[in-house]
């Protein structure tokens, strides 16, 4: 079979493999492709293709004759998961990235989009963080293993582009949320954990033990201490409208760190915007300075502008974890109290991305955080109806 010559940007009939299509990011990109009329999306379940198996990945790509790849597959989790399973995070992510990127090159796939994470930046980086801050300082220890793997993915893309002239692009999203998120109470990120904790507390105040059982069946185990609090609330005086004096909702850390949140549908739109840029325009964007309003490479007598190898994707706005908790609490409709467990780690004090490069393309986030959380909570509740 004769392969098509790679075009400088996506075509609607391109064969595009979405690695990790069942996850929050991959499923959003699949929806975005469908909504924009792309007809060649290819997906494969983990049971059908183990991305940590180099031979299997290379053989799969060779049979499919792909035009482009979106690498959204990854082992992900919150502070607790990263802190307790560093070997799993660094090994699995390194293997997935290395196998997919190398197999893409081996089988002649010219275009690839790699999705990283804002945790690649130093713990005490100046805010907001520009792309140039990569490798400029020490990482946050609690998620260092995951961050190192993601940095390696960026450098893999950069190195294949330099040596072989491929068009492998990388985006670094801020904290994401939305449908298909992971709501595990021990290993999820902060926003889905808040949604679930407040929802379970609301069910307990309403003495809806059947609802709690359904929630556990869909979203995973409830830790014993949390379960005990929920049970105590469900068994309290039937005339009591509020939670008992011992708070049902226990939140991690101090609540003071600031985080930026982006709805996954906004990310998927940004990914297609970036993939749709002609190569020359994408390179000029990477070579531009964050504080410059126009896109373009250096010219004339000036020194060449520094070229970065990835683009930030975020909103450019952040919120404290405590304020975020109050937003979620209001949307869920829980009226009880909460306590903050400061024995739990806070992580990086602040993570705010500079997204001025991406905004030069005309992309802007559309989903305001309160609307996005309300939409996510609606999706969450529907899973147990």
Walk me through the structure.
This protein has helices at residues 24-35, 54-64, 79-84, 86-106, 144-164, 190-205, 209-219, 224-234, 264-275, 279-287, 321-332, 356-359, 369-382; strands at residues 16-19, 41-42, 68-71, 111-115, 167-173, 175-177, 249-252, 258-259, 261-263, 311-313, 319-320, 338-341, 350-351. The chain has 385 residues and is of the alpha/beta class. It has two domains: 16-178 and 261-313, NAD(P)-binding Rossmann-like Domain (Rossmann fold), CATH 3.40.50; 190-258 and 316-355 and 365-382, UDP-galactose 4-epimerase, domain 1 (Alpha-Beta Complex). Helix 2 packs parallel to helix 4 (86-106). The protein is globular. Mean pLDDT is 89; it is low at 1-8, 241-246 and 292-305.
Key phrases:
13 helices, 13 strands, six-stranded parallel sheet, Rossmann fold, three-stranded mixed sheet, alpha/beta, 42% helix, UDP-galactose 4-epimerase, domain 1
Topology, element by element:
Blueprint: E1 16-19, H1 24-35, E2 41-42, H2 54-64, E3 68-71, H3 79-84, H4 86-106, E4 111-115, H5 144-164, E5 167-173, E6 175-177, H6 190-205, H7 209-219, H8 224-234, E7 249-252, E8 258-259, E9 261-263, H9 264-275, H10 279-287, E10 311-313, E11 319-320, H11 321-332, E12 338-341, E13 350-351, H12 356-359, H13 369-382
Helix pairs in contact: 1-9, 2-4, 4-5, 6-8, 6-11, 11-13
